[in-house]
Amino acid sequence: MGKIAKIEYFRVPPRWLFVKITDDSGAAGWGEASLEGHTQAVEGCLDAWAERYLGLEANDIEHIWQLSYRGGFYRGGPVLMSALSGIDIALWDLKARNLNVPIYELLGGKVRNKLKVYAWIGGDRPSDVEIQAKARQSQGFTAVKMNATEDVAWLDSPSSLDACVARVSAVRSLGLDVGVDFHGRLHKPMAKQLAARLAPLHPLFIEEPLLSENLPGIAQLSSSGGGTTGSIPIALGERLHSRWDVRPFLEAGCVDILQPDVCHVGGISEMRRIAAAAETYDVALAPHCPLGPLALAACVQVDAVSANFAIQEMSLGIHYNNIKDRDLTSYTRNPEVWDVDKGYISLPTGPGLGIEVDEEEVRKFSVDSKAWVSPFFTGPGGEFREW
User: Fold this and answer.
1) Which residues belong to any copy of the Mandelate racemase/muconate lactonizing enzyme C-terminal domain (predicted)?
2) What domains can you pick out in the chain, each with its CATH number?
3) Strands 344-346 and 114-120
4) If phi over 0 gives left and psi between -120 and 50 gives alpha, with beta otherwise, what is residue 286?
């Protein structure tokens, strides 16, 4: 096996950052280091690390992971861990391709042949949501996710929650399971009310009911005195960047479904460890992935070997993917791996990540590609609200 000879990255629309690692034999692996709204920061980290990696044995994935994580005074956080994710995923892809096996074969082997999946729907009115939900059904999905609200004040009128309840009810009436993403936009006075109102509709889960910086508040919502709110599974994890970030939530018993993002936690290596840790607390794994095909393919490799895997997010047709008509099926030559049948996708069987990157397309769309800028909300008084 070879030594690392070259590291490249490609900023591509709609908001993704791909990483390519080539060894001295000319073999290559691909990863994804997307960090929505902070692309330039991750690129800077990759630039700083590039010389450190050159000449290292590409096979020594864990050694390189530890070097990246422990080889500087500061560690963790979204930027460093997203850069590490891109490197780690690419190294796993390279190693598995050199051995001509899927990555999951190197992680202990699969425990399933297909994976349950869900996709996003948008819309502000029940009629809009119903149309989009039916479209997802026609694509083969049996579960969807939607945002709960737009911007909400710290303490707002209870009527500001009416639209969410109506939209969830409309989707449930079609026979679909629905996850409701609070997105950390609500603060505790409003999150408590919305969770209680949604409980009779039996959502699949509520996601980020509060920002993960508020662990005690999430624990309160989770217990709710054993009442109706406490019966809803709580999902979170996209803003936790390592097993050390995850640990307090597992210890507090306030999360039912863990949603690590393979692009933000240090790649396949760390997500595998997080999944195993969650299993010891009887917590399900449902990786967060509103990103590109490389990120999803990396998630799938961990899903395949994790006993506690529950469901996988897919960005197929998500509203972000409207920049230059790029979608989950872009930049690859075998988009059929993402075909959905009765709520499931089949486990890819190809080498490495199981997808074939169209490098010509990647290079073409990376030319003068603009970094995606995260929007934000302001209230009527000019104050910032959570986005």
Assistant:
1) 126-228
2) 4-101 (3.30.390.10), 105-352 (3.20.20.120)
3) antiparallel
4) beta
Which of these, 267, 299, 286, 253, lies nearest to 82 by C-alpha position? 267
| Distance, CA of 77 to CA of 80 (rounded, Å) | 6
CA distance linking residue 319 with residue 64, whole number of Å: 36
Task: Report how far residue 362's alpha carbon sits from residue 40's, in angstroms, rounded to the nearest whole number.
Answer: 18
Active site residues: 183, 288
Cα radius of gyration (the chain): 20
Q: Which amino acid is at 37?
A: G
pLDDT digits (tens, 9 = 90+) for 145-204: 999 998 899 999 999 999 999 999 999 999 999 999 999 999 999 999 999 999 999 999
Sign of CA dihedral 335, 137, 261, 82: positive
342-358, pLDDT tens digit by residue?
999 999 999 999 999 99
Can you tell me which residue has the tokens 């949604």? Answer: 198
Residue (of 70, 97, 82) closest to 35 by Cα position: 82
**358/345 Cα distance (integer angstroms):** 22
CA torsion 164-169-172-178 (nearest 10°) is 10
Phi, psi of 20 (to 5 degrees): -125, 130
